[in-house]
Every structure is written in C-alpha cells, then in structure tokens.
Design brief:
Layout: H1 28-34, H2 60-75, H3 80-89, H4 102-105, E1 111-119, H5 120-134, H6 146-162, E2 182-190, H7 191-199, H8 201-208, H9 216-227, E3 242-249, H10 251-259, H11 261-266, H12 268-280, E4 301-308, H13 309-326, H14 332-343, H15 347-357
Antiparallel strand pairs: 1-2, 3-4
C-alpha cells in the first residue's frame, strides 16, 4: 500500500478500496502576495476614533475599580462616608465586603465553622438524625435549629478523639469520575478544640491508620456519622475493569456519532465492543483511518468510551497483527472509529471530513 497520504475515507467500492492521493496544498506565501491589497482600505464610512490621549485597554475588574475610585473622588467633599466605602470596595479584596456568609454569621462566639463536603443525601440524613434525637415530637421538629446540635456533637466527639476515648475510621474515597453531587455541611466547632486537632492532625492520621492525609473535615464527618449511627457508602465504581479509549475524530463526525439514534439508544460502549468482537472473530476487517500530521491545524474532537479491559487487551494484540498484515496503521482506537463509521453509515461524512484534513496512513 502506498504510504504517502490518505485524503479520503472511501467505502463506495466495497472492501477493496484504495485511498485517494493527498490533495495538493496551497502555497500560502503566493496567496498572501497575490491577495495583498494595492491601496489602503477606505474607512471613511466608519465612526471616527475619539481624539485625545490614548487610554490603555483595561480588564473588566480594572475598569470597575477605576469607576469606584472616580466615584470616591467625586463624592469626597459632599459625602465622605460614601467615598470611603467606594475606596474600600476598589481595593483588591474589597468585593468581600459584599459577600455575606449566612452560615458563618450564625456561628456562636468561640466557635469556628468547619465546612464538610458531603453527598446531598448524607447531609440530609445527618441533619434529620440530629433533629430526631433532640426532639422526639415530630410536630415540634420544624422549630429545632440543627446547627447548634451539630456543633455540640462535633466538638464533644473531637475532644474524645484527642483524649483517645473514641476512634475514627477513614472515609472511603468515591471512585474517580463517579460525578457524585456534593454540598457543604457547615458545622461550628469549639475553637480551642479545633486548634488542638489541627496541631495534631499528622499524629492522629498515623494513629488511626489513614492512608490519605487526615483533615478536620474528614474526622468531623466520620465522628458525626458514628454519633448518629450512619455510614458513608461510596458510589459503586462503574468503570472498574474497564479501559478508557479516547477516539480523536473531526468535530462534525464526532457530533454525528454522538447524536446518532443507534448511539443514543444502544450506547457508544456497546457498539464499540461489538466491533471489537467482530474483529477478533475475523468477521470484520478495519480500514485505514487517516492520521492528521503532527502539529497540523486540523481540529479533532474527542469521543471517550470505557470498554472492558480484557477485550481491549485482546484487540490491541490483534491490531499489531493486522498492522503487519495490512501494512497500515491499526490500533484499538482506529478500529473503534472505523467500525462506528461503518455501523452508523457515516461514510459520506467521513469522506468529506477526512478528505479535507488529509493525513498519513502510517505512524511515521
């Protein structure tokens, strides 16, 4: 097979297809000289630029600060208090004056708020358990304030942890990519206890056998769960035993694959796995997928799919044999792309997209 270049993805001749020669490239330097204007463009119909000293373009934040400073100067004589407020807002961290932490504003004296990131359902479970314990009468629970209850429970438990009266198991980590929706559970903790816990975090983590670094939030969450008889159940890892394949294809082709009814109904993973099984059984032979030259300007979109790791390993071994036999680049990714094009009947779009981008059929 000619190793020059592959310009079109042609399937209209059945399996005995031949790549077209790469389309001739344009000489950009000749075009630039040929298309160069012979005279200056006429801007007489456009709005005239304002006269006066040139003002450097500022970012949005700098512009707002400039306006605040100008306002402060204008009001300095008539409204000095307002001017002082505007000057404070114009400072680098002045915006914090407008930010009110409603949870922190309810923190009692000598307590410090600890923000714990937890799944939505777990925050609700902890708060409900605290209220149920404090108020047996269901009709009166609506009037119970949950934050003081959590503050007392967390502070007492952390003091017991420091004194060695209780232990705390490490919170299991959620699998990467699980996309668990989390929210903040704000728990005020006695400031003196909190300071001592922070000082002894390395010692506590070693004593408790934490594999990851121990934090106040992790300890407080585990102690609150133990206090109310709850547990942290990590989301099952749906990607365990699967390998991530990133399929790089032209953007229009990627969009067509994502929106194809077969992909929407069946799933990208299932279709790719079906193609892999056919290749392993010798029932289907992949065609060459053009590879954009390194450093080229041709845009590629990514289709990510998780496939059974054992199946991917067997396909990669088969791809090496096919590469030697067919004399062109064959990988698990190119097999997946080619099968998607064939199975979803996207040959014409693939012809147009790969024909425009060109590319090489080898790894050289």
């Amino acid at each position: 097979m000619d190793k020059q270049g592959v310009c079109a993805y042609s399937r209209h001749q059945g399996r005995n297809r031949s790549p077209y020669a790469m389309a001739p490239t344009r000489d950009m330097e000749d075009d630039a000289v040929q298309d160069a204007p012979t005279r200056l463009p006429d801007h007489s119909d456009r709005r005239a630029l304002p006269r006066g000293p040139h003002v450097a373009r500022k970012s949005e934040v700098d512009r707002y600060r400039q306006h605040l400073t100008m306002g402060a100067e204008a009001l300095q004589a008539t409204l000095p208090e307002v001017a002082a407020t505007l000057e404070a807002l114009a400072r680098p961290f002045g915006h914090r004056m407008l930010t009110v932490d409603r949870e922190a504003s309810r923190v009692p004296a000598n307590f410090t708020n600890v923000s714990i990131s937890v799944p939505v359902h777990l925050r609700t479970a902890i708060q409900d358990a605290a209220v149920r314990r404090a108020e047996p009468d269901e009709k009166k629970r609506a009037a119970v304030k949950v934050q003081p209850l959590l503050a007392e429970a967390a502070s007492v438990r952390l003091r017991q942890l420091l004194d060695g009266e209780v232990e705390a198991e490490e919170i299991p980590r959620d699998p990467r990519g699980s996309a668990v929706e989390k929210v903040n559970l704000n728990v005020p903790v006695d400031s003196a206890v909190l300071a001592e816990v922070r000082e002894k975090l390395p010692e506590l983590g070693e004593r408790l056998g934490f594999r990851a670094n121990a934090t106040v939030a992790k300890l407080a969450l585990r102690l609150l769960l133990d206090e109310y008889g709850l547990d942290y159940e990590p989301v099952p890892n749906e990607f365990e035993g699967r390998t991530l394949l990133n399929l790089l294809v032209p953007p229009r082709l990627a969009d067509a694959i994502r929106k194809h009814p077969a992909v929407v109904d069946t799933g990208l993973r299932e279709i790719v796995a079906e193609g892999f099984e056919k290749v392993l059984a010798g029932a289907w032979t992949p065609y060459v997928i053009p590879k954009a030259p390194q450093g080229s300007e041709y845009e590629r979109a990514t289709l990510s799919v998780y496939v059974d790791s054992d199946l991917v390993a067997r396909v990669r071994e088969k791809a090496l044999a096919l590469k030697r036999e067919l004399k062109y680049r064959v990988t698990a990714q190119t097999i997946a792309i080619d099968y998607l094009i064939s199975e979803l009947s996207l040959e014409e779009l693939a012809d147009a997209e790969y024909g425009a981008a060109g590319g090489s059929s080898t790894d050289d």
